[in-house]
């Protein structure tokens, strides 16, 4: 298995929107009210919003490939593009998604190793992320890799206010 990352460009807009919707639906649709979920999907993965994010020098999307197959994507935020902390010494991993049929193959761990390498190359002291408090599988995964909870913040799926735990990995 050969894994690699590829930085997304505006030419990837349609594929990125589809990948974002597909992975988010697979992960969370069953746990949310349909009207709130649809509103969130339309907002978070709308092409206008994604185009703006792709053009932001402080945000980066990467596709993850296993051999020649697109298997997931990540979104990294720096500086003022971070959704919460906005610490110049950190990088936020805002999104990390692997298609369900490729989960359990070590891809998530590989992705995190790449993110840590990128953060080190930029002399950042930690990586942080938000994870839904009702996602024990993801929380356990991150904690196993050394992340620890340092706070929480509200996260809205449509009008439904949920809570994300803020997890941090010092590097």
From TrEMBL:
It comes from the Bacteria. Pfam families: Acetyltransf_1. Residues 3-171 form the N-acetyltransferase domain. Keywords: Acyltransferase, Transferase. This is Acetyltransferase (GNAT) family protein.
